[in-house]
Amino acid sequence: MSISSQGETFVCDPWVGKANASGWQSFPEFSSIELAEYLADAKWIYVSHLHDDHFHPETLKVHGLLDREFIIKRFSQPILRERLKRLGVTRIREIDAFEVVKIGPFEISIFPQLSSNSSGLEDDVNFDLDTSIAIKADGKVFFNQVDNPLSFEDLKNVHAYISQKMGAIDVACLMSGAASEYPHLFLGVDHANEKKRIVDRSLLDLAQWLSLLNPQYYFPAGGTYLIPGWLSQFAANVAQPTYPEIVNFLSDKRLSTQCISLEGGRFLEWDSESQKVEVGSSISPVVFEREVATEIHKVDPYVYEHFDAPEWSVLTKYLDQARSNWEEKVVRKHYEITQSIIFEVYRPLSLKDGKSDVSKHLGTFRIHAAKTPDRGVLSIHIDQRALFACVVRKLVWNGVLGALCLYERTPNRHYPTDFFSLNFLTITDQQVEQLVDSIEA
Predict the structure, then answer these.
(1) N or C: which end of the chain has fewer CB within 10 A?
(2) pTM of the predicted model over 0.90
């Protein structure tokens, strides 16, 4: 997504190709040469957060963007800044949240993650991770929510700030639906009904958001994804509304905001003098049919397939250490873990008769036991190689959990703290060396 004014261009979160440990494929697909030309004039790159469908090193390198000035929030932990530096970026501007800053012809303000989820579910983890951004140019204000899980109360505060400091919002890009593993990767649930429930709720939320922000134009969050590899068979149950569903719903609500689609290289141009608005195409995708793209990518391998992992008896030693590290963090941070958490490990993880193929099952490893049986169980079905790669930090838990695992959950209730805390289920390089030495001895 790019914003241009007075010949200057500001780009948000450029990502092309694979993300989430290759569990997501960007869509639509473009010619790499045309994309490089399209991005050539970009002067500033805003990176909203660490997830690799937003901070995507390969895209930044391949398309020659490392020499631009990067704009990020000043996070409590400078992980994003340091990763940009290691990538070779030398110009990084960190901006405090809720502060209007002048950058070229733009005024921008970045907004932090104020809640861990937009549903108001209780969560102890509350990462300082996601951000949103408001950009003002030529008297027009654009609000890009990105992935920031703002609650409606959070949005009220953000909207009040933008209105006071920058003016009324003219164009808004907002999320709609779930960019997560539920319900499509969960076994034993009514996928169709759960998808409909989530989509219906997200459309109601969207209408509420648009009623508050009241922009003249709205478009769904820029860029979508499809599921590659063998897990593509679950794609139909991803809980995201289609563009026609969004248009029809908002039309029924009789909102004054006009809904447009910019996916696939389209643009909205607003002339500040004549106030004329034009919607057109600036770059054309080479693959725009989702069914075609899914068919192309359904045999793609996942990145963990290139890794190896120790046999089960050795792997459990790594898991014991990772669990100990996780427990120490949970206790120190006073996290309340609700459900029992169990890993069901396979080599390979695959499907048979609608369930994980038990003939490939290697073993079960319990991370946590609930205080009482009525709290229930979260069972995570995972490939042995993906599990080991996450434990030794070759892969990031967030991406693997969000795209490459299958789940069973009783009762079927989401506890954010339980799930998010698994990002701490890792071991240090020093602990890896000690384990290798003890195993060899």
Answers:
(1) C
(2) yes
Identify the pLDDT of residue 174: 94
Per-residue pLDDT tens for 8-63?
A: 999 999 999 999 999 999 999 999 999 999 999 999 999 999 999 999 999 999 99
Mean pLDDT of the chain: 94
- Domain of residue 102 covers 2-297
Closest CA to 173 of 3, 386, 29, 419: 3
Mean pLDDT of 94-105: 98
For residue 225, the one-letter residue type is Y
Domain final residue pick, 275, 297, 319: 297
Do 310 and 355 belong to one domain? yes
156 has pLDDT over 60 = yes
CATH code of the domain containing 373? 3.30.1050
Q: Which residues lie across from 351 on neighbouring strands? A: 356
Q: Are 36 and 63 in contact (CB under 8 A)?
A: yes
Number of domains the chain contains:
2
For residue 344 the two structure tokens come to: 């069901």
Per-residue pLDDT at 126: 58
The answer to whether residues 131 and 111 touch, using CB atoms and an 8 Å cutoff, is yes
Are residues 377 and 285 both part of a single domain? no
The confidence score (pLDDT) of residue 180 equals 84
